[in-house]
Amino acid sequence: MAILDELVTQIENPDLRARIAAEVEKLAKQKKFGLVFEEHLPECTPLWDIPVKAGRKAALKTGHVNDFYTVLKIEDGVATCLNKDKSATAEFPAEELVCVAEFGEPIYPYLKPIDTVCNAPDSDLWHTLIEADNYHALQLLEYLYAGKVDCIYIDPPYNTGARDWKYNNDYVDNNDQYRHSKWLSMMQKRLKLAKKLLNPRDSVLIVTIDEKEYLHLGCLLEEMFPEARMQMISSSINPAVVARTGGFGRSGEYIYFLFFGDAAPARTRLEREWVSSRGRTHTGQIRWDLLKRSGTGASRQDSPGGFYPIYIDPHTSRIIKIGTPIPEGISEAPHIDGAFCLLPIRDNGTEGRWQWTAETFMERMAQGRVRIGGNPTRGYTVYILKDGEYSKLQNGEFYEIGRGVNNEIIVADIDTDHVLAIPGDIWQISTHDATQYGSRLLGNIFAGKRFTFPKSLYAEHDAIRFFTANKPTALIVDFFAGSGTTMHAVNLLNAEDGGHRRCIMVTNNEVSDAEAKEMSKRGLKPGDEKWEKLGIARYVTWPRTVCSIEGHDVNGNPLKGNYIGSDIPMADGFKANAAFFKLGFLDKNAVALGRQFREMLPTLWMKAGAHGACPNIGKTVPEMLILPDNKFAVLVDERAYMAFAAKLDEHQEIETVFLVTDSDSGYRDMISGLNVKESYQLYRDYLDNFRINAVRR
């Protein structure tokens, strides 16, 4: 319908335009079921690195990227162009044009180094920030890490109608009748690619959202990820509550968790506010359960082997003997002088059963998992430690300080400020306050306001921690990076437990709507240095990354305070490194001829695992690259294969090799003689990936 609306506006005859518009409106009112949304005109992206030449698609830098032309010729700096519907030509200064690609067309991305921060020169762990439209960055990440990502955390635009995101380079606001379907169309395209990144055996997708789109998003996620288990969490992020005219105040948002394969939240050491003080689950003490079964299946007939006597010394409360199961039809146990005989008789006087057989009871009593309460006057009760509680003792959550009269384990009092637990689905956590631990924390770094509505650092830290606490080398991706909270959170996790988790963030370099209007009045346009300097990637995300790693604000002053929960001084920064790249696009013919190897090197570095600092080479491309610190090597000239193989034998730390050859059989012959984990054929592997995947989309 959206495409029809746009086509109707192009009809010149006003009567015909009105009649067709009326019919389209009738179609739009027809009842639809399920999640139905418009596909919309394909998204386009500017290709700033591709020169404008005859035969290429181009748009005005100051115009709409979707209003593109085909360049017919360029003479004396003036481009003659044919419009999109091939009805007219126009002339523009070539310098005012930028090449564009439509959604689904093959693109050949590369990573252009912008900056680095190195605060751990002895570590080979390097995070990555990529400045790009996230769709094309995801295409690159699919080539690099398909099926290898452990956790994706995204905080997409909430589509509030406040001109907070763009579709086809235009802000979407409340006046756009298709804003919901445009948002869904945008999300669907990106989630399709994100799905290919996740490890199907064990990974998690985390998506935050508010009430504007949570219903649509939930349906979309269920439709796109039927193999995943999905759960939605309600999270309080503003305890002060934002007043809403004519409605309840807003204090929370929602978090969708999609579990793939064996993924599940881990029991984690949490502050007491995470769990209820009521009930029996997280009291801060080890929990003893009743041996006598209750509820369904609790009668003697349900398990005759569970009806046996337990004999107790009434003077010491020590268990003297465990009897054998009493035969059916008999209700009394054999008498033992001086002993109290205990049978599983229920409160209503009927015969019940014990949860454990007599044999299991004796085995677990020897382990210290049986305790006696009560006395001979009011009766005795037998308590047991089930497997789950006993495992808490084994994994160190509690520790033993002695044994009781029946060999029962006696545990020490524990720190009741914390508990090992998996929380419920309603989070009211003080450190998740987005004002205190998002906006103000960011304000301390920038000495002012550069970004609206950042996430609480600890809210992201906690969400990710439940799934990476036991994965110290997890790969975590955020392709709606915003202010850069995700990498900040990952660095904090690593600092707390010595982990080696790696984070890849993607964000565009858009300026705000107000800034764009102001700079346009000054004659500036996208691509100009002053314009790009104020974009989110360069003005917010990267400066935050540098400052948090080095422990200072943008003016060089040490950050104040400690990180909550760990007492790590913020001024200490993190033992971490990060590289900042801008996504660009290569000419496929130049790639095939090997003329852009230098530009491709950062991509090869990332594909090999991003170990060590990203290498660079001079103007002359060598016949081979042996990079032991980066754990990869490249054979550029196959005539040097023998020397290349000999070098690899000297460097067993190299795990990945790239071989430049046009011969499939030659590639197979060469790789058969190398002892490496991963190998790739250049440039065919790279070119085929983006050509084939473009067709499939």
Report on this model:
The structure is a single chain. With 697 residues, this protein is α+β, with helices and mostly antiparallel strands. It is 28% helix and 24% strand. The protein is built from 18 helices and 34 strands. The protein is elongated, with a radius of gyration of 32 Å. The two termini are 21 Å apart.
Provide a compact summary of the structure.
The protein contains 18 helices and 34 strands. Helix 17 links the parallel strand 33 and strand 34 (678-682).
Which features does this protein show?
697 residues, alpha+beta, ten-stranded mixed sheet, 18 helices, 28% helix, elongated
Task: Produce the secondary structure layout.
Blueprint: H1 2-8, H2 14-28, E1 44-47, E2 57-60, E3 69-75, E4 78-83, E5 89-93, E6 97-102, E7 109-118, E8 127-131, H3 134-145, E9 151-154, E10 162-167, E11 170-173, H4 179-197, E12 202-209, H5 214-224, E13 229-236, E14 252-261, E15 268-271, E16 289-290, E17 310-312, E18 319-322, E19 340-342, H6 358-366, E20 370-375, E21 379-384, H7 387-394, E22 400-403, E23 409-411, E24 418-421, E25 426-427, H8 434-446, H9 457-468, E26 475-478, H10 485-497, E27 502-507, H11 513-521, H12 529-533, H13 536-550, E28 562-563, E29 568-569, E30 577-585, H14 588-592, H15 597-607, E31 624-627, E32 632-635, H16 641-650, E33 656-660, H17 664-672, E34 678-682, H18 684-696
Helix pairs in contact: 3-4, 4-5, 9-10, 10-13
